Amino acid sequence: MPELPIIDVRSDTVTHPTRAMREAMLNAEVGDDVYGDDPTVHRLERLAADLLGKEAALFVPTGNFGNQLALFTHCGRGDEVILGDDCHIVWHETGGAAVIAGVQLRTIESDKGVIRAEEVKKRIRDGSDIHWPKTGLICLENAHSNGRVIPLSAMADVAAVARLHGVPVHLDGARVFNAAVHLGCEVREITQYADSVMCCLSKGLAAPVGSILAGTHEFIAKARRNRKLLGGGMRQVGVLAAPGILALTEMVERLPEDHARAQRLAERLAALPGLDVDRSDVHINMVWFDLAPEVDTAKLMATLAAAGIRANPPEDGRMRLVTHWQIDDAALERLITAFATALG
Ligand SMILES: *Cc1c(COP(=O)(O)O)cnc(C)c1O
């Protein structure tokens, strides 16, 4: 019997480029992008800026790079950045904000990814007292890496406070296209509440590499210089921009499939013993759940591995599964069966 293909539900970052992407890479027109000569990069940046509703865009190596570049470009050293205490910039970017932008992160307790505008308002400081840092930036995240989509009204409230005080807003929109699918709106309806936005091409959109930072012409010109400073000026990078174009033109429209499979997965897992999934928290392609204390996690992980499933082990009893274009209906059934075997 032939070996079944591996099912990798650790993240949507594990997605391989599609065949069309590999062909586009082979055929991409290229030039030296540091000289501004790469036509494929220009096409990607124009397309991304239009979709994100911003004047200009910049191709960057990773989402992490894009977020840190935004902080570095918006802020001066010693500025304060206000953001939720459970956001990616605080948790998963290696403390980069202190090293690169040299900023202080001022966190606010988040309610499942939502930060309240009143709490932001209380913390904004203009630097007029010699003891005070100046608030340089406010960051939002949507979709949140907890798998939930933040309501537009919550973003609008924070943006209103920010504008009143003349503080820019950056949106970590690693999965902003997933957020738009969930809300049933255009991406620009989400990004309108931010001065700059980062989005990932290499997650559910399946490009092998790359993210976008978008904003005003002036901001992107400054960010382009700062990208060079950080060693991110890339040469014949049209080979990577080409799959990025397909990520935006062909892969966004199939995201609802991933969301529907996540819903189905949550529903079927909820029926199993020893596992508690809050289905109302499943907004995009992620299913989070708690395992009961009596569940033998070593046995669970071994059963999944034996069934050819790659999943991250639970942290503090909490586990995450992520759907993407390589998880089809057959893979989903194998995944559910493996959980049923392990827990049943
Ligand atoms: C993945 C992610 C990033 C970072 O993207 P990389 O390309 O992995 O560096 C930033 N923010 C959020 C919310 C993410 O989920």
The number of distinct helices, counting runs of at least 4 residues, comes to: 14
Sheet with the most strands?
7 strands, mixed
Q: How many separate domains make up the residues?
A: 2
Structural class by helix and strand composition = alpha/beta
Strand content: 15-25%
Could you tell me which ligands this complex binds, including any ions or cofactors? pyridoxal-5'-phosphate
At the fourth level of CATH, the homologous superfamily of the largest domain is Type I PLP-dependent aspartate aminotransferase-like (Major domain)
- Terminal CA distance reads 26 Å
Cα Rg = 21 Å
Major beta sheet, strand line-up: 2-8-7-6-5-3-4
How many E-type strands? 12
Poorly predicted regions are none
For this structure, the CATH topology of the largest domain is Aspartate Aminotransferase, domain 2
> Tell me, what's the shape?
globular
Overall pLDDT, averaged? 97
Broad CATH class of the largest domain: Alpha Beta
User: What string gives the helices and strands in order?
Assistant: EHHEHEHHEHEHEHHEEHHHEEHEEH
Domain Aromatic amino acid beta-eliminating lyase/threonine aldolase: 8-290
Organism: Crenobacter oryzisoli
Family: Belongs to the threonine aldolase family.
Protein name: Low-specificity L-threonine aldolase
Question: Can you describe this structure?
Answer:
There is one protein chain. 42% of the residues lie in helices and 15% in strands. With 344 residues, it is an alpha/beta fold. It folds into 2 domains: 19-253, Type I PLP-dependent aspartate aminotransferase-like (Major domain) (Aspartate Aminotransferase, domain 2), CATH 3.40.640; 255-343, Aspartate Aminotransferase, domain 1 (Alpha-Beta Complex), CATH 3.90.1150. The strands form 3 sheets. A 7-stranded mixed beta sheet has the order 2-8-7-6-5-3-4, with helices on both faces. It has a 3-stranded antiparallel beta sheet with strand order 9-10-12. The chain binds pyridoxal-5'-phosphate.
